[in-house]
Known about the structure:
The structure is a single chain. The chain folds into 2 domains: about 1-195, 3-Layer(aba) Sandwich (Leucine Aminopeptidase, subunit E, domain 1); about 200-330, Rossmann fold, CATH 3.40.50.450. About 40% of the residues lie in helices and about 15% in strands. It is built from 10 helices and 12 strands. It has helices at about 30-35, 75-85, 110-125, 140-155, 175-185, 195-200, 215-225, 245-255, 265-280, 310-325, and strands spanning about 1-5, 15-20, 50, 60-65, 95-100, 135, 170, 200-205, 230-235, 255-260, 285-290, 300-305. α2 packs parallel to α3 (about 110-125), α2 (about 75-85) runs antiparallel to α6 and α7 (about 215-225) runs parallel beside α10. The longest helix has 18 residues, at about 110-125. It is globular and about 60 Å long. The two termini are about 30 Å apart.
Amino acid sequence: MEIGVANIDITQVRADLVVVKHADGFYGADKVVADAVGFDGYVKNGESLFVKATAMASPEVLFIGVGPLSDFRYEKIQSFGSAAVLLTRDRPIRHLALTIHGPGYGLDPEQAFLSMIAGIIAEWARGATSLNKITVVERSPKRYQLLSRLLQDQQKNFGLPRGPDLHSIRLTELAQDRAKIEQAAADTNIIQFGARAERKPRLFVAMPFADEFFDEYEIGFCEAAKASNFLCERLDLEHFTGDVISEIKKRIVESQGVIALLNGHNPNVFLEVGFSLAHNKPTIMVAKEGVKLPFDVSSQRCIIYRNISHLRDQLAKTIAALLSQGILDVGASRTA
């Protein structure tokens, strides 16, 4: 079986089945699919529903209930990947397509993506399936490139050979190769990938949730944090349901530190910075060259970056320095 990434709209992918979540409602690509097939029902947590999809390139959609979006984190994303494979075992499905979950509402993109891939591989390793292709669809060209690179970077960890192109990996049914993959899955404890991600130390990111800051977050912040084994998370105010202020406070308190992007002088960012400083959380402020800092933070240390590469390098050095100085308290984290 081949697992690959495709830069295409989820409604245009030609697969036998499209799999999406129902998180007590529809968000992002899930909403696009639900609207395309005219589905406005409710799928309970742990339940699933197949729906015909006459208005899409794929003939059928599988909705999987996952509970509230705020609870759909790495471990549950891995379970979702497993369920996508498991629920096709008794059906003649050869090719299924799904989307990445997590980055659109604030989770670390690498850990969210690899948690789902780990779930797919773990379920495939448990037994025979009619599937011969799984496509992870990503409409954003930038994120598509990031996911493709991730898939290739992690193929050795998952014990997998490269697929027919640079954007895929292959699971093989050959007995000797399958045995190697199953052994690699056991050695790397793939089944616990999502749980391990949940326990990693985190940096909360205070920033506007806007497409124009894609590079700052997914390249500058996330890659710099990864260099010191931290995850980056933020909170999408549009998609979050419930008491937003309480959730922001909770995430800041549970994080090891805060990264704040001051571009645009977003009031929510300054609210989060104020709460962070009041609770003595290490706070790294970031602004692009030319951004005028407000007087009340101008006395704080701030990384001024020229471009995304400069941001990533300077932030990685700062995080590493704070870690070596004991300012970022990893000992209080959820690391396994």
